[in-house]
Specification:
With about 350 residues, this protein is an alpha/beta fold. It contains 11 helices and 13 strands. A 5-stranded mixed β-sheet has the order 2-1-3-10-4, with helices on both faces. Strands 7-6-8-5-9 form a 5-stranded mixed β-sheet, with helices on both faces.
């Protein structure tokens, strides 16, 4: 650890963070250490918040890293951010948010990448590892209500029905097949319209009357951006099962960068590591396509236990299977694998094509 701190402090000339190395040549991570630690991130407001949160956390852990110029933020606009008129499933899945960032990591243009864990593919590219998961923010989804919707708890609605505030036949904007499948299973009268973009863009769309009437966003993102008041209703994770990894900030590095991996392992949150392991093993066992609605949400129980909820569905809501498994937190991977295997076994085979 002391060796890493000394190397970080001895930074020299800064190379252009996003300039590609000469063709066929990859920089040596060891020789590239004598410069600021370059943090790769998407360029959205939420992604930048996450990168800066990570920087503050690691600087608090290693006081020497509070020195000015130790960190360099390298923001990239990814294909997933640029192509907004099509569903992610049609252009390569959530991995598009990480693809260019991981190419920059493998080429040694950045030293680490900060992500929303839910945006990471289950199988990382060769040579890249998940170094740590940070303390989880609230994993629940929030219902964003436009002017044409009722309000939860109003006399005209059922306060025990989270969907009662949505008018019959209302249009709900989302690009998430997971949210779509669960919503249409509960309310087949509703219609779903594709809605993509950053948090602020989607909020602005819902504020316009009927364009669309409502949407759903991760509560974690709203909180991190100071926009929690925009949540009309926070959905119980058993009603709307969150995405695996939702609310967790994760960091990937090159597998060979052992000193940096040691530093990051020291700031990892044990609870986040356990629940992330269970949820990602659930995904691995299901091995669904990017069009398959899949939910996974784990939480720790008193006494060292872990409870994992898993879900698979059809995008049109015509099929939905939700199961729960419990066990010891130290067996998080086995719990996720077993639950995912059971869900796959008991679901229509075409769901995973």
């Amino acid at each position: 650890m002391q060796h890493l701190e000394a190397e970080v402090a001895l930074h020299g000339a800064v190379l252009s963070p996003l300039a590609a190395p000469p063709a066929g040549l990859r920089r040596d991570p060891a020789s590239a250490r004598h410069r600021p630690l370059r943090i790769g991130t998407r360029a959205s407001p939420l992604a930048l918040w996450q990168a800066r949160h990570f920087t503050a956390l690691v600087a608090g852990f290693c006081p020497i890293l509070r020195i000015g110029g130790v960190f360099e933020e390298c923001a990239l606009s990814t294909s997933g951010d640029r192509i907004l008129d099509r569903r992610l499933a049609d252009i390569g899945g959530k991995g598009l948010f990480a693809k260019e960032l991981h190419e920059a990591l493998l080429d040694c243009r950045v030293d680490l990448v900060v992500h929303s864990l839910k945006d990471l593919e289950t199988e990382l590219p060769p040579g890249i590892v998940l170094a740590c998961a940070l303390k989880r923010e609230d994993a629940r989804d929030a219902l964003i209500l436009g002017p044409s919707c009722g309000r939860p708890g109003e006399a005209s609605g059922d306060p025990d029905d989270p969907w009662a505030c949505l008018p019959r036949g209302a249009v709900v904007g989302t690009a998430s097949s997971r949210r779509q499948g669960q919503l249409l299973h509960a309310r087949p009268d509703l219609r779903v319209q594709m809605l993509r973009g950053n948090v602020q863009t989607r909020l602005a769309r819902v504020r316009a009357v009927g364009d669309p009437a409502a949407s759903m966003l991760a509560l974690a993102g709203l909180r991190r951006l100071g926009l929690e008041a925009e949540a009309g209703l926070v959905l119980d994770p058993e009603v709307m099962v969150p995405a695996a990894g939702q609310g967790i900030v994760a960091v990937t590095v090159r597998a060979e960068d052992v000193e940096l991996r040691a530093l990051l392992a020291a700031i990892a949150d044990p609870e986040a590591q356990a629940v992330a392991t269970a949820e990602r093993e659930l995904l691995r066992a299901l091995d669904g396509s990017c069009r398959t609605p899949i939910g996974g949400h784990a939480r720790l129980l008193p006494g060292g236990g872990l409870r994992l909820t898993g879900l698979v569905a059809r995008p049109d809501g015509s099929f939905l299977l939700r199961r729960v498994a419990e066990g010891r937190a130290v067996d998080a991977a086995a719990i996720g694998l077993a639950l995912g295997t059971a869900l796959r076994r008991d679901s229509p085979i075409d769901l995973f094509g």
